[in-house]
Specification:
The complex is a heterodimer of chains A (about 220) and B (about 55). Chain A is an alpha/beta fold and about 220 residues long. Chain A contains six helices and seven strands. Chain A has a seven-stranded mixed β-sheet with strand order 3-2-1-4-5-7-6, sandwiched between helices. Chain A is globular. Chain B is globular. Chain B has about 55 residues and is of the alpha+beta class. Classes of the chains: A alpha/beta (about 220), B alpha+beta (about 55). The interface between A and B is medium-sized, with 19 and 18 residues.
Chain lengths: ~220, ~55
């Protein structure tokens, strides 16, 4: 398997650039990501009364539908690294009248601040590919730990196809040349989730203007810890 | 300042021990790291906890 490229940018810098980006993010990136994101939310299928965690909620576009799904008896927890993004999200939740169903924290998914077995479901959309290569299995292991037995995880991410397109190759080149501007890169999503000990239930591939995204839906086995 | 429900679920990201609310900081009862709450949002980053670390009791 071809190697996935590394992330050169330190986290402090990543956080600062997301703070700056937050106001423009929805207009530029949000639209492109909408379809795979919505497909991912449908796979996760959050129910009334459930406890759901979204890692890297960004400008909060998925927190809103998640909060509607869990209802008044459920709760959505959102974790992100960027305080700038968080400001935009707080505004959106207030406007939608959903603040009470959502709790937000700043934090790093490599070290999740929740006890074992806390959540029914975890969602990540275009987030896992932002972590440096050695951190990806750490993030997934933390997710498994924080999920209840039988819990669900859905990850939407840019994936490395079997035969990369010209655009995918150009994108990866840009990521290597300008790591501060092009911060994510395609990864092997399914393999990473499987290696972290999840049971894969469904994999859907969609094309994002020539780049490939994968929606991986998996379960934590009832017997695993 | 932060809801009881949230306080119940948060643990120290470094050692996964329960945190307690003390003087507007979330304090880890095991390692003594203290996490600030800014604008009502807990900042559960280990480097933030390290900045305000106290010797555990």
């Amino acid at each position: 398997m071809e190697e996935i490229s590394r992330v050169a940018r330190p986290k402090e810098k990543a956080r600062a650039s997301y703070d700056k980006l937050s106001r423009w993010y929805d207009i530029v990136v949000g639209r492109m990501e909408k379809r795979p994101r919505d497909l991912g939310l449908a796979k996760l299928d959050a129910h009334e009364g459930e406890k759901v965690l979204e890692i890297g909620f960004g400008t909060g576009n998925c927190l809103l539908p998640l909060a509607r799904s869990v209802g008044d008896s459920g709760k959505v927890y959102g974790l992100d690294m960027s305080a700038g993004m968080l400001g935009v999200t707080v505004g959106k939740l207030e406007k939608a009248g959903l603040s009470k169903r959502v709790e937000l924290q700043l934090g790093d998914a490599v070290n999740l601040p929740y006890p074992d077995g806390s959540f029914d479901a975890i969602f990540m959309s275009f987030v896992l590919e932002l972590f440096d290569t050695p951190e990806i299995p750490l993030v997934l292991r933390q997710c498994r730990r924080a999920l209840k037995a039988g819990g669900r995880i859905c990850i939407v991410a840019m994936s490395k196809g079997k035969s990369p397109t010209m655009l995918a190759m150009a994108y990866e080149w840009a990521h290597r040349m300008f790591p501060n501007y092009i911060d994510c890169r395609p990864i092997y999503v399914r393999e990473a989730v499987e290696n972290a000990g999840f049971k894969i239930a469904d994999v859907t591939r969609v094309s994002l203007w020539g780049l490939s995204a994968e929606i991986v839906f998996a379960n934590k086995l009832e017997t695993s810890t | 300042m932060i809801s009881k429900e949230l306080l119940e679920i948060l643990v120290c990201p470094a050692c996964k021990t329960k945190v307690l609310l003390e003087e507007e900081m979330l304090v880890c009862t095991s390692c003594g790291r203290r996490y600030p709450i800014r604008n009502g949002i807990p900042v559960m980053l280990i480097e933030e906890g390290d900045k305000n670390k106290i010797e555990p009791k």
